[in-house]
């Protein structure tokens, strides 16, 4: 009887010992998870801190810089430049990235942009076609900074009441785009007929 009790006790002790060995303490698991998280954070910080400047610039200049502008003009034209406006309150007009500076569009990031423009003349009559349209032009260019003054588009009306075009062009941060229409022609303020915009397509 005593021998049987000893065997039972020994078996119980062995069983309890086996149970303790197989059980992982929560403290050890938490320490392991914390160590892995700390290691991952260090690796990410190391990668971000050692990025190439071009990669950092690419992160700072997302590819969704875009603008779609409407004409902003009242009264007689004293300046060949067309003035633009943009914003959600105007309906289909918007600005994301580029900015407006006194009605002229200024880009905020270097890159290749697709620009597009359409200008329709207001009160385009047959008499106007015969007198002025054969020499009327619409020009788009970089007007500021003056060291980078470049003509990007030059469109002739050729007896038509509207012109439209688009092109890809490299632009630098701070470039301001101006659109010049031959004086004293008046552009239509209808947003379906006269509009101007740019879209960033490549760094």
Oligomer: single chain
How many individual β-strands?
Answer: 11
| Unreliable runs | 1-13, 16-21, 52-61
Hey, roughly how much beta strand do the residues contain?
25-35%
Helix content: 25-40%
Largest sheet: 6 strands, antiparallel
Total of DSSP H or I helical runs spanning 4+ residues = 4
Average pLDDT confidence is 81
What is the H/E string? HHHEEEEEEHEEEEE
| Shape verdict | elongated
Query: What is the CA–CA distance across the termini?
Result: 89 Å
Radius of gyration: 34 Å
Task: Please characterize this protein's 3D structure.
With 203 residues, the protein is of the alpha+beta class. The chain has 4 helices and 11 strands. Strands 1, 2, 3, 6, 9 and 11 form a 6-stranded antiparallel β-sheet that branches. The radius of gyration is 34 Å and the shape is elongated. It is found in: Cell membrane. InterPro entries: CD70, TNF_dom, Tumour_necrosis_fac-like_dom.
């Amino acid at each position: 009887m005593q021998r049987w009790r000893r065997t039972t006790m020994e078996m119980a002790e062995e069983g309890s010992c086996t149970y303790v060995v197989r059980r992982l303490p929560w403290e050890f698991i938490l320490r392991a998870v914390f160590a892995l998280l700390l290691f991952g954070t260090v690796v990410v910080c190391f990668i971000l801190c050692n990025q190439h400047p071009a990669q950092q610039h690419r992160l700072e200049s997302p590819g969704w810089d875009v603008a779609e502008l409407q004409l902003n003009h009242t009264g007689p034209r004293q300046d060949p430049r067309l003035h633009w406006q943009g914003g959600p309150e105007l309906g289909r007009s918007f600005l994301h990235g580029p900015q407006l500076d006194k009605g002229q569009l200024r880009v905020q990031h270097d890159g290749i942009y697709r620009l597009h423009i359409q200008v329709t003349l207001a009160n385009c009559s047959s008499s106007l076609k015969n007198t002025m349209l054969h020499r009327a032009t619409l020009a788009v260019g970089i007007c500021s900074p003056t060291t980078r003054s470049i003509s990007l588009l030059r469109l002739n009306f050729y007896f038509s009441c509207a012109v439209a075009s688009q092109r890809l062009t490299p632009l630098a941060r701070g470039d301001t785009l101006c659109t010049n229409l031959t004086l004293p022609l008046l552009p239509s303020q209808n947003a379906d007929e006269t509009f101007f915009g740019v879209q960033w397509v490549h760094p």
